## 1
Amino acid sequence: MATNSAASNTFFPEPRILPGGEKEFMMDVATSDLEVSMGPQHPATHGVMKILLRADGEMVTAAQPHLGFLHRCAEKIGENVEWLQYLPYTDRYDYLAAMNNNLGYSMAVEEVLGVEIPKRAQLLRMICVELNRVASHLVAFGTYGLDLGAFTPFLYAFREREWLLMIFEKICGARLTYSYLRIGGVFNDAPPGWLQEVEHFCDVFEEKWKEYYNLLMVNKIFVGRTANVGVITPEQAKDFGLTGPMLRGSGVSFDLRREMPYMLYGQAFEDGAYEVPVGKGEMGQLGDCWDRIYVRVVEMMESIRLVRWCLGSIEEGPVIGDVGKTIKVPPGEAYVAIENPRGELGHYVLSDGGKGSSRCRVRGPSFCNLAILEDIMPGTLLADSVAIIGSTDVVIGETDR
Amino acid sequence: MLINQPNLVLDSAPAAAESGNVTLHFLQGVAPEAVPAWLLPVAAAGVSVGVVIGMISVIAMLCVWLERKISGHIQCRYGPMYAGGWHGWAQTIADGVKLLMKEDMVPSGADRALFMMAPAIVLGAIFGAFVAMPLSPDFYFADINLGVFFILGMSSLTTIGVVMSGWASNSKWSLYGAMREAAQVVAYEIPLGISLMVALIVAGTFNLREASALQGDWFGMGWFVFKNPLFMIPASILFFISALAETKRAPFDLPEAESELVAGFLTEYSGIRWSFFFMEEYAAMYLMSLVASVFFFGGFQSPFTYLAIEQFGADSFIANLVGAVTLIVKSMFGICLMMWVRWTLPRVRIDQVMTMGYKYLTPLSLICVLGAAVWEAII
C-alpha cells in the first residue's frame, strides 16, 4: 500500500539503492527559473537601461540588455541642423565626457574642412579632454563602489569631480554640457590663472588618488567581490570589438591615442607623457572586473601626467583656426575615431556642401561594449551581475543617443 | 569560579534578591488602598511598556540622526543642519512626521493582511526583546533568569516579519531580500549564540542583571573580556561580526542591498510602515550593543559606577543613574562602531556571507567556547 502510493507520487519516487545498500530519497521537484526585469528603474543600471535576467534563485542563467529608453534621435538631428548647431547635441550623449564628444565631432568636421588647428588650441583641447577623462573615471570609480555597497568612495570621488567641474565652469561657463571644443579650435582662451589652478588640481589629485586606491581598490571585500568575476578573455574582447578600458582590462594594449595619434598625443607619447595601462590579472584572472576598474583608476593618473605635459609645453597664440563665422564645409566625408573614456568614439560625417551634414553617425563605445553582457553574465550571482554592469561603465545617454 | 566570588553589588543590593517588576514595586508602595489589587499589575505593565517603547523610540531616533551625522562627517559633508536649529537635531522628528502623513500604500496583488502585519511583528518583537534588558541594578522591567535566551529568541522573531514582508509584497526584489534574510540569519544565529556562550561560561549566569553585577570588581573594570582575555576578546569580535549580520547592517546588508535588490524586502513599503522597519533596524543595533556591553564589556559597571556605589550605596538613585548612563554610553559606542563599519566597507556577496558564517565564524566560536571552558576549569 505504502509502496504503491510512493510510486504514484512523482514528488516522492522510489528510493534509489546506493552501492552500500543505503536508500537515497530524492525529491523530484522542478524549480522554475525566475524572470527578473532589472530596470529601467533600478539603481545599478546607471540610468534607464533594462536588463532582462533569468535567474535560478540567486544564480543568473541568462541576461539580455534592452536599450532605447533614452533615445533622442541625436544622429538624425545632426542631419537637420547646421554644422555648429550640432555641437551641443554631442554634449548630451555621453554627458560624463562631453569634452570628448565635442572633440570627436569637431575633428570629424575639421577633417572634411581641412583646417589647421593652432598649437595653443590643441593643447587646451588636450587639457580639457584629459581632465574630463579624469572626471569621467572618477564617476566610474565612485559609482562602482556604490554598486558594491561602499558609499563613501563615491562621495570622495565626487568631491574631486566637483572641483573639476568648477574648473570647466571657469573656462566655458558650463558644468556638464560644455560645447567648449569648437570646430577649428576652442571657444575661448583660458581665463587668467586657470592653468595654474589646473596645476594645483593635479598636485592635490595625486595625493587623493593614493587614498582612493587604498580605500577601495585593495579592500579585501572589494577584491573578493570583483576578482574572478565577469572574466573577459583577450580573444573574447577582440571578438566583441570592445574598446577602451573594457579591452585594456583584458590585457590587450590598445589605445587610439597611441595607435592612431591625433592632436599632439603622438608627440606626448614619444616624450613619455603617458603610458597605456593594461589589466594584468593581479587579483584574480586576467580580464575580471577588478582589472577593468584598475585600468580606469590607473588611467586617471596617466591623464594627470598628460595634463602636466600639456601645461609644460603650452605657449601663447590663437585658440581657433581660420574657419569663418558661418562654417562652409566642402563636399566630402570623414570618419574620425578618438579615445573616449569608455573606448572608441567614432564620428562619421558626410558633407554635400550644404549648411549641415547630410549624414551624421556615431559609433558609441558603451553601446558596443554592452554586447558582451549576454555572454559573461550567465553563471554569475545576482550580486555579480551588478558588479559586471558597473564594470562596463555604461552611460545610457550614449548607448541610446 | 567567578560566580562564587563575593560581589559588591549583589551582596549590598536588597532589591536584587526580589524578582519582579520595579514599576510594580513602586506602585504598590504609593497606591492608595482604594485601588483594587488586580489593577496594579495591569497599570505596572502599561507603564513599563510605555517606558520601553518611549525609551527605545527616542534612542532609535537619536541613532538615525547620529548615523546621518556620522556618515556625513565620514564623507566630507555635514549631514542634516537645518531642522531644529542645532546641527539638525530635529531632522528625524521631521522625517517621522512626514512619513506619518504619507499614504499607506499596499501594492495590488499583495497579501494584504500579511503585508500590513509584517512591520508590526518586526517592531513588536524587537521591543519585546528590550523587556529583559536591565539598565541598572534596580532599573529593569522583567528580571528573567533566562534573559539571554529571551532576547535572542525575540530578536530572531524579527526575521519572521521580514520574510512575511518579502513574501506578501508580491515583488521579486522583496522575495529575494526575504530569502537572503532567512538564509543569512540562520547562518549567523549560530556563531552569535555560540560566541555569547563563551561569555555565559565566564559569567555563569543567563540573567543579564546578575551578569552585569558580577563585573563590578577590580575598581569597576572587572569586565568579562578582561577576566578571560584570551578567548573573550576573539569571542567579542565574533559576536560583533555576527551581530552586524543579525541586524542586517553593512557589510551584511544583503536583504536590503539597494544597489542590487532596489531596496530588498522594503521595496514595496512606504510611509509609516517603512519607518517601522527602519526603527527596528536601529532598535536591533541598540539591542545587540546592549547585549555586547552586558556580556563582554562590563554592563553598567565602570569606575564611575564603582565610585557612585562606594559613595551612595548600591541601591541609591545616583548609583542606578550612573549605571544606566554607563550602559547607554557603552552601547552607543557599539552603535557608532557599526556605523563606522557601514560607511567604510563594500557589501559582501551572498556566497561569501554563507562561507564566512559556516566555515569560519562557527568553528572559531566553537574553539572559543572550548578554550574558555578549559580556562575556567583550570583557573
Note: Confidence is low (pLDDT under 50) at residues 1-9 of chain A.
## 2
Amino acid sequence: MNRVVWESKIANPNGVHCRVAAKLTDIVAAHNAQVWITGRGEPVDCASILEVLSLSLIQGSVVAFTAEGPDAELAAQAINRLLSAKEEG
Amino acid sequence: MDSEIEQRLEPSEPETLHGISGSPGIVVGKVVVFSPQDDGLIRYRLEPGAAAKEEARFLAAVERAEQVLINLRQQFEGDLADTVAIVDSHIRMVRDRMLLEQTLSLIRQKQINAEWALTRTLGIIKKKFDHIADDYIRSRFADVEYVARLVAEQLTGQGRSFPAGFAEPVIVAGEDFSPEDTIRMHTDKVLGFLTEKGGSTSHTAIVARSLGLPAVVGVSGVTSRCRTGDTVILDGYEGRVCLHPTMDQQRLHLEYDRQHRAFSDEMSWYIRLASETVDGLRVRLSANIEIPDELESVIYYGATGIGLFRSEFGYLQGSRLPDEESLFVIYRDMAAALAPEPVTIRTLDIGGDKLFTRLPELRLSRERNPALGLRSIRFSLREKSLFQTQIRALLRASLHGKLRILLPLISSLSELREARAVIDSVMEQLATEGLPFNPNTEIGIMIEVPSAVVMADSLAAEADFFSIGTNDLIQYSLAIDRGNEYVAQMYDPLHPAVLRMISQTVEAGHRQGIEVSLCGEMAGDVFTAPVLLGLGLDELSMRPSAIPHVKRLLRHSTFARLTALAANVLKCKDSSEAAALLNQYLTANYPDQFIDRDERARAD
C-alpha cells in the first residue's frame, strides 16, 4: 500500500478556516487516498471538515500528515500546495 | 438612472389591516417578523426496533438540507464568490462524518429521535470548538449550528429562527406566540405584539395585557404583508395596524394615545380608594399574574391580593424542573410581599402535551386531544412526586402570609378528595420532619368544567373557596377553542348558559358559606364586570392594570343598581340582549370615548 508521511507549514494568515478546510476535504474526496493529521492526539481524518476545523490550525503551525492509498502521492502534493499558499487561489 | 433609484426608494403606500384588539395602547415602531415554529425541537425515545427507520429519516433530511444549500449556491454563483465559498463549506459540513456518524450512533445506541440526537451531537461538537484558542476559528461554530438547524428544519418540515435579542425595541409579528415565546421575549426590547391568529383571549393577548404592551391579534396576512424592518403603527385600542404610515398619521395616533394615557392618569386616582359601591358593598379586586416580576404592578395598581398566580412559569423555563427550594422562595416572597392580603396560587395547570418534550423520562405518549386529556390536576395526580414537591413548597411558604392553594380543573368530588389526601399526607410528612407550615391553609378549587358547576353544592361542602375560571368554563361549555380563528367569534362570555352557570356557582358557594371568586378575562372587562359584581361574587381577579377601571365602575354604582342589572341580564335569552343591557349600563357609567368599539358593535 502506498503511504506518504510529510509535514506542511500553514501559511494562510487566517489559519485553516472554513474555506481552506473545505478545500482540504475536497482534495481528499477527489483522490483515491485516506489522509490523516497525526501527532495531535488521535489521528484526525481529513475527510471531515469539522474534525479539521476543530484542530484550530493557525498560521505558522507545522502539521504532520499521513496519506495512504493509490493516490497518496498526488493528495500529499495538492494538500501541501494548499497549505503553503499565503492566499487562497 | 437617478430617477429610477428615487422611484425605488419612494415609500410604499400607507395601508391599514384590521384585526382584533389584543391589548390596548398605540406604538409606532419597526417590525420583526417571526416565521412559524419554535426553536424547541421535539425530543422522544424511540419504540423498540424503530432506530433503522429513524436513521433513514435523518439521512433523508440531510439530503434535503444539502439540496437547499446547493440551490442556494446556484443563486449566488457568478457574482458573490465569498458567499459561494461559505455556502460551499456549509455543504461540506452537512455531509460531515462528525455530524452524521455521531448523530446516527446516538439514534442507534440511545434509542432517541433524530432531532434529539442531532442536538446532542451539536453539543459534543460545541465542546470541541470551545477548546479552540483561535477566536476566528472558534466562532465558526456558528456555521455548524446553522447547518444543524437546516437539517433540523428538514426533519420537522418547518423553518423558524428565534432571534434572542434585538438592537432596538421592536414590534414582534408572527403567526401566534405561545406563552413560552412571549415569556422568552419579555424584555424591554418589545414594543408590542402582532399576530395572524387568535382572538382577544388568546395567549398572546393575555400575556401582552399583563405586560401592559399593546397587541393586535388575528390580523390575517400580516406576516406576509409586513417585512422585518418596516415601520408600522400598532393600534391596540382599535385592533388596527397601519403599514407604511405617513408622518401625519404617526402624529395623530400618538396624540390619541396621549389622551388615553391622560385618562389612565385619572384612573390612577382610584388606586388608593376602597373598592366599594356608594352604599357600601365591598368587592375584593385582585390580580392575576403569570410571573413573579409582575408583583410590582400588583402593588402599584392597589390590588387586594393575588386572585390567581399561574404557577406554570417556573416549569416552562430552564433546562430542568424547579426544585422545592426555588419554588418555596418564589411563593414565600409573594405571600410576604402582599400580607395580610391573600395570595392564591394555582397548582400546576399544564398539559401533558407541554411536558411531553420537556420531560421525556415521563414517557408520555402523544395525545389526540390535549385539551380533554392529561392536564392540570389530572397530570398532578398522575405524577404525584411532582405535585408533592409543589405542595411542600406551598405549605412551607404558608406561614409567611395568607397563602391559598387553588386546585385547577376539578371535575368531580372524588378528584378533590384525592388531591386533598395528597395535601394531607404532605402535611404529615412536613410535621414529621419538623418543618413549620400553616395547617389551616385554605384549599380552594377552580370551577371551570361544566360538571363542577352542576356539582357545585357538593364540592362547596369540601372546598374552602371557589374560583370560577371563565376562560376555560366558556370553552368547555360552548365547545369553542378560543385560539381557533374559525370559531373564536363564537366564544361568548355573555352566553346565557355561561351567566347562569356563574350565578349557580355563586349561590352554591354562598349556601355553604364559602367565598366565590372569578378570575377569567370577564372580570377585568368594564363591559362584563358590572354583571359579575351584581351576581354577588366576593372577588374579581384580573390583570393588575384593569383594577382601577373596574373600581371606578364599582364606586359609581350602588348595590341595588348592580343587583337589578344582574337580575335583568339573567333573564336574557341570548347574548345580544344581555350585551345591549350592559352597553346601556356602561354608557351611563363610563367615559364614552374609551369604550371599546368592538364590544359596542356587538351590542348594536
Note: Chain B has a mean pLDDT of 84.
## 3
Amino acid sequence: MADTKTPAGRAVHPAVGSSSGPLNRRRTRKQVRATAGSGRMAALLVSPTLLVLTIVVLYPTLMALNESLYGAKGLDPKTGFISDTEPFVGLRNYADILGQAGERFWNAFWNTTFFTVVTVALETLIGVAMALIMHKAFRGRGLVRAGILVPWAVPTAISGLLWRWIFNSDGIANALIGHQVLWTTEGFHAKVAVIVAEVWKTAPFIGLLVLAGLQVIPKEVYEAARIDGASAPRQFWHITLPLVKPALLVAMLFRCMDALRMFDLPYILIGAQKHSVETLSMLAQHEASNVRFGPASAYSVLLFLYVFLIALTFVRLLGADLIGDVGADTRKRKGRRLRIPAPRRKEVTA
Amino acid sequence: MTLTEKWRGGLLYAGVFAVVAYCLAPFYWMLVSSLRRTSDIFDTSLLPSSVSFENYRAVFDPAQGFGRALLNSLIVAGITTVLALLLATFTAYAMARLEFRFKRLILTLIIATSMFPVVSIVVPLLKLFTDISWINTYQAMIVPSMSFALPLAVWNLTTFFRQMPDELEHAAMVDGCTRGQAFRKVIIPLAAPGIFTTAIITFIAAWNEFLIALSMTNKPAMQTAPVAISKFTGATTYETPFGSQMAAGVLVTIPLVVMVLLFQRRIVAGLTAGAAK
C-alpha cells in the first residue's frame, strides 16, 4: 500500500510499485509521455460503463426515491372512480412504515441486523480457522482449494433447497441430533437454520481471502518472533492478525453488505412472509410483487440508507484499509506494505 | 521427527479433513439424495441402497419445463456476461493504465455499486418494466443483472491489467503502435487468461441470480433454472418433491463445480484480487 500515501487526487502511475529516488524520476518522465492526451481516451473508455451504471443503478434509485412518495392506486375521493394515477402522499409511506406497519418493518430490520451480525461473526471465525489450516497444509492444498470453492459455486437458491431438505422434519439434521425439530416452521430454530446454511456457503469465501492475505506475510517475521521467544498464540495475535487485518476487513465488509441484502436463502429455506426470518429485502420484494410500489419503494430506500450507513461506518472506523485498497495500486509487491499513519488515512478516505 | 511433530502433523491433517468435509458434506448429501428411489428418499444411509435415476427422469418430465429453464438461465447469464465483459475490458484498461482526474473516485463508485442492495433497483424497475410490458422478457432480467455483473467484471479486470508489466505497451508503442493498437494487439491477447477468469466469475454470479429472475417473470416458460427448481411441484400440492429438487440442483450445480475444479487456481486469484495485495 506504499503509494496510497500520495494524496488521493494525484495518484502515481499505477503500474509502478516502489518509490526509490532515481526510479521515481525516471517514472515521471515516462509518465508524461505515456499519459499524454489520456484524459480524453479515458473518458471514451470509461463513459460506457458509467452510462450503463447510471441507467441500471442511479436512475432506478432516484425513481424509487420518487416513487416512495406516492400511494397505491385507489378510489378518487372526488369522482368515485378508480383512478389511473397514483396519488401523491408525501412522506406518508414512511410514516406508515415506522408507525402503522411499524411492527413488520422493525421485525424485518432486526432480523436483517441479527442475521448480518451473527453470520459475519461466525463466518469470520470459521473462515480464519480454515485459512490457517490451509496455509499450514502443504500436501493436498489443491484438493482443499477445490473443495472450498464448491459452497461458493452452489447457487444460493439451490443451497436453500439443499438445506431445506437437510432440515426437513425427517431429514438428516434431525437424524444426527436425535431430536425432532421442525426447523422450517416459525420460531427461533428457523433463524438457526438460515444462519447455518448461510455460514456454510460463505465462510469458505472469507477463508480464501484470508488465505491470500496470509500468503504474503514473509516467513522472516515469524522467524524473528521465534528467535525472540514468542509462543504460537502470541505470534498469531501480534503478527498474523495485524498483518491479515486489511484482507480480513475487506472480506468482512463484503460479507456485511451481502448479508444485509439477504433474500434467496430465507425465502427458499423457510418461505415468504415468515415473521421469524423476514428480511428487509424480502419485505420490499413482497410489497412490490403485490403492486404496492409506494411502500415497496419506501422499504427499499430505507434498506439502501441502512446499507449505506453501515458501509460508511466501516470506512470511517476502519480507515483506508478498505477503500484505499480498492482505489490504489493492487499489484503484487515484493516489499511488505506499511500501515498508513492515522492522519494520512483521513486524507485517503476523504 | 519427534513425537510432538508427529502429533502436530496428525492434527493438521485432521484439520484439513474437517475443512474438506465441512465444504463437501452438504453437497454430497444432495448428490446421494438425488440418486435414491422415491420410496427410500428419507433413508439416512451414506450411500444409496440402490442407485436410481428416477429423480433425474422426473426432472426432465416435459411438465416441469426444466429444459426450457436451463436454456433461459444460459441465455440470461450468457448475454449478461458478454455485455459486462465488453464494457468492463475498456473501463478496466483505462483504470489500470491511464491517468485521469477522479480516477479513484470513479473506481470506488463502480465498486460501491456492487454492494448495492439488489432489491432497491428491482422495485422501481419492476414498476417500469410493468409499464412498458417487459415482464417475462430476457432483457428485463439482463438489464438489472448488469448492476452487479459490470462492477464485478471491472474490478477483476482492473487487477489483471495492473499485473501486466507496463513495458509491454511501451515496447509496442516504441515500435510504432498507437495506444489503441497496443491495446488491441498486445494487451488483449496477453490478458486473455484474465478476461477468461473474469468471464467465469461473472457468469457464475449471473447464473446464481435469483431475486431479479423471480421478480421479473411470472410465466413458467420464462423462469430461469433456480426459480424453476424452487417452484417444482410434486404429485400433490402438499408433497415437496425433494428427490427431483435435489436432482435438478445437482444438474444446475455440476457445470459450475466442473468449471471451478478446472480453473480453481485462476478463480482463486480472481476472487482474492485486490483484497490481499
Note: Residues 65-231 of chain B form a domain with the MetI-like fold fold (CATH 1.10.3720.10).
## 4
Amino acid sequence: MSNATLKVNGKEYRLSFSPHQTLLHVLREELGLVGAREGCGIGICGSCTVLVDGRTISSCLMLAVQAAGHDITTVEGLADDEKLHRVQRAFIDHFGFQCGYCTPGFILSTVALLANHTNPSAEEIREYLSGNLCRCGSYPNILKAVMSLSDSEV
Amino acid sequence: MRFLQPGTLEEAISTRVDNPEQSVIIAGGTAVVLMLQHGLIAPEVLISLEKIPGLDSIRIEDNRLHIGALAKLGDVADSRLVRQYFPALFAACAAVGNVRVRNQATLGGNLAEADYASDPPAALMMLDALVEVKGISGTRQISLPDLLLGFLTTTLEPDELITGVIIPIPTEQPRMAYLRYNNRSSEDRPCVGIAASATFNDAICTGLRLTVGAACEIPTRLSEIEALAVGSPLTDTRIHEIAEGYAAGIETIDDLQSSAWYRTQMIRVHIQRVLKGLRDG
C-alpha cells in the first residue's frame, strides 16, 4: 500500500491505497467523488476527465500516486456552494446533454479550454472537445453551450 | 508493487540496475498505466521519472533543438520553437490521441514504448533527430533507426534511460508536413503517417526526406527512393514513382485496423498527397 496525500478540490486527503490504483478508482471508491466515470477505460471517451494542475487528463490513465502533490479538480469542485459554475449553467441553459454520463468530462474540458482561450471559435471548440465522446449525440447543444461562453460568439 | 520517485537521473539509473527484471519505468504513464490495468505487465517496482528536475525543457543550444524526455506531447506541439523550425513534428505531436493524452504522455515515453501505431517517431526520424540516452557508463546519442528495433522493442540497455531528443536546425528552412491517415474514427490509432520535408531552388527539388510510420514495425525511410526527387522538378510522374517506390519497399503490418495490403495502398496515396502539397507550397 502507498500512503499519499491527494489534494482534491482544494481539500487535502491523507489516503492509503495500492499503487496500481488509478486516480479514477481512488476518487470514486475512496473519496466518493463519482462525477468522473469510467467509460472506455483507455483514455479515449473522456468520461473520466479531471483537471490536474488545471490541465485535463484521463483519470483512468493516471495512477493515484502520480497525482499526489498536484492540484486535482473534479466536477464536484466547480460550483461555489449553491451557485453553479458558469460552464455548468451554460450546459443546463443549452441542454448540452441527454443522459448526462459524459457531462462532467465535457464540463471540465470546457473549463480548461476557456482558461487558456477566452474566445475560441466553433472550430477550435470542436477540435479541443473532440476527445470527449457523447453517445447521446448532444454535440450541437454542447457546442451552443460552449459558444455562449466564448467572447467570439456572434 | 512499489512506486519509487527518484530525484535524480543517477538515482533512477541505480534503482533500475538494482531491479533490472522486476522494474518498469514510468514517465507520463498513458502507456504504462494501460498495460498495468490490462495485466500485460506486473512489475514489482515502478520507477517514476517525474520528480527529476529539468527533463521537460524545450530549448535551442548550438543550433540544435533540445527537447527533454519528459516534455509532454502537448507542450512539444505548443512550443513556438517546434512550430517555427519543425512544423512536421508539431503536426505529428498534435495528432496523438486527444488533448488529455497529450497533456500526460511524454516524448521520451513515446519513443521508449516503441509502439508502431504512433505519430512522433516518423517525424523525428525524418528530421534526423538523435535520442540522448544515459546509463551507468555515461551518455550516448543514437539515431532513431539505431534506437527502434521492432514491435515494442528498443536497443536500450536495462540501465539506460532516454533523457531527451536533439534535432539539428536546418540552415535552409525546408517545406515540411506530417500527414496522418486514420481509416476509422478520429480518436483511433493511425493507419499510416507520412513525414516529409523538401527544399526547392525555384521549381527544382534540391532535397527530400520522407518517412513512413504507423504502417510498419519501425518507421521507414528509403534514401535511394528519396534521391529520385533531387535535381529535377517534382512532376506528378516523379511523385508517382516515389510513392510506388515506398509502397513496394515497405513491409506493412496486418492488424485489427487494416490489412497489410490496404496499408500499402494508403502509403501510395498519401505520399502523393504529401509531396504534391510540398511542391505546390
Note: Residues 2-48 of chain B form a domain with the Uridine Diphospho-n-acetylenolpyruvylglucosamine Reductase; domain 2 fold (CATH 3.30.43.10).
